[in-house]
Amino acid sequence: MSSIAFRRRVVARKLGPVWLLSSFLALGGCYDSDDITGSISRTPAVMPTNDVASSAYADEWKKRYDANPGEKVASINYARALRALNRYDQAVAVIQSAAVKAPNDFEILGALGKALADDGQLQRAADVLSRSYAPENPDWSDMSAQGSVADQLGDHAAAQGFYLSALKIAPNEPSILNNLGLSFALTKQLPEAEKILRQAAAAPGADQRVRDNLALVLALEGKFNEAESISRRDMSAEAAAANVTAVRHMIAPANPWKEIKEGDAKRREDSTALTTAPASTAE
Predict the structure, then answer these.
(1) What is the mean pLDDT of the segment spanning 75-80?
(2) Which residue of 214, 235, 255, 260 is most buried, as measured by CB atoms within 10 A?
(3) Using DSSP, how many helices (H) and how many strands (E) does the chain show?
(4) Domain ranges within the chain, ordered by starting residue
(5) Distances from the Cα of 48 to the Cαs of 9, 119, 283, in angstroms?
(6) How far is CA 131 from CA 61, 145, 181, 263, in A?
(7) For residue 39, what are the contacts with CB-CB under 8 A and spacing of at least 6?
């Protein structure tokens, strides 16, 4: 990440008095919806971390998918690779081909729900993810993805319930904690968000997204020096400083002296208008 816009697919806008989800995400909040369940033996636990490796990974699975469209493992891995490359509509199409062949397969439904969520089809994603596991066969990754969808739909209470349920299955899983921390931030519970994101950042397997979110929340709390220090773990000092500066500008209050002067000028204009207006006479 090189700027406070980070890597989200939303339009940046100034943070207003009401915290809209898109505003917070535009500042940099990144949900983690990777389908790392380990339930598919041939699915690697960690995706490639750069575009070149991701493209090569996608090409490899595309060949396997093209040889047998709709085959479960190839479809899930190819769709996952496409998501990593931000080719969300293609990922949906690929995994849907597998869902046609196996409409009740939990793993395929989970992958489809996550692809739909990435593609912005939130209501469809919520429906599909609700059918991607059973009480006797729960999946923490799908639950966490359900939470991120609920957050984006504005139902933060339900989202936090999904995250807490997921944590019962996978305690201290950084991706779930990351999403829970973001959810608390979206409901303006910044101290709780900070606490959860610190726990996520300290957990084994935590990646840059978690640290980015922690730095963002710290900056929103006014803890700029610590936010910058955390950001420097993953980027240059100049980029980290630029990120914090961007947050400062976005949350800075309006200039009070300017408002006072403008208010005084307006009152003088109103007073002058009243004293110079011709007196009205009764008919």
Answers:
(1) 96
(2) 214
(3) 14, 0
(4) 1-34+139-253, 38-137
(5) 20, 21, 85
(6) 26, 13, 25, 57
(7) 107, 139
What is the 3 state secondary structure string of 224-271? Answer: HHHHHHHHCCCCCHHHHHHHHHHHHHHHCCCCHHHHHHHHHHHHHHHH
Averaged pLDDT for residues 173-179? 95
Would you call 134 helix, strand, or coil by DSSP? strand
Q: What is the pTM of this model?
A: 0.78
Distance CA(140)–CA(131), nearest Å, equals 13
Q: Class assignment of domain 1-34+139-253?
A: mainly alpha
Q: Nearest-CA neighbor of 90 among 66, 69, 63, 115?
A: 115
Q: What number does CATH give the domain 38-137?
A: 1.25.40.10
Q: 3-class DSSP state for residue 137? A: strand
With CA atoms as reference, report the closest residue to 129 among 141, 118, 106, 113.
Answer: 113
Token couple for 116:
């739909």
